[in-house]
Amino acid sequence: MTDISLKGVIDMHVHSNPDIRHRAYDDFELMEAAIRVGARAIVIKTHQGITVDRAYLCNRHNELTNHGNNDFTMFGSITLNHQMGGINPYAVESGLKLGGKVVWLPTQSARNTKLKTNQPTEGCVDVFKDGKPVPELKDIFQLIKDFDVVLGTGHISPDECFRMVEAARDAGVEKIVVTHPEWWLVGMSLEDQVRIVQDYNVILEHCFAQPMGGGKYKSNLPMNLEAIKACGYKNVMVSTDGGQVENPNWEIALGQYIQFLADNGISQEEIHYMTHTIQAGLLGLED
What we know:
Number of helices: 10
Number of strands: 13
Helix content: 40-55%
Low-confidence stretches: none
Oligomer: single chain
Radius of gyration: 18 Å
């Protein structure tokens, strides 16, 4: 068994309180956990919209307390669900001017989510209309380019992912992450994951576990290992999508994830690349 260290790790997908769905940690508790294990950064996410102001308060608290001798940074993000006005360039512009680092396409409001969870599709946030990206995406792509931040695909379908990635690449967007393609709600096949990497050189975000209903979670780790081997470690980013009370606390989940990879033949250099290097590049940090 390899000794696992979380020193310098970066997780670009963690949920915390305040949230409509109760989370294991609030923002400050998550920050404290990250500092304890020596993490470099976390991006906090909410399906309700924006976490940029919350990240600012964490960093300010860190600066003003005795914790200030660390190099940890909390980053915020914007999720384009119905609460944010959907595909809303004004919300994106405000969020990025305030320091947001990731713009997620719709998650809970995505048509794909509604269809796969047997919910009415009225009020869903569509990213395509008449086969083309909705017009507002042109401005959002430009904002993502101007601020040099990340486009996350959210919970759109695999077919939409391919078309969205192509449209974003055509618009000059460089930093594109396919959000947890292994999750059944997204449901991208391994063959399609290989193809989207080969065709567009995107980053695949593979997360710790996925909800299966009734408060139960299924480990993604065997599928993630398979994806790393098929797609190549340079295009697979380790994230937890952590924060659920049903799962281990964030730092425990990430440690278990890294331990699993090490125990199954993934080298320390490869693990470092997937937990430090990719994220540092996306966030504009030094590795």
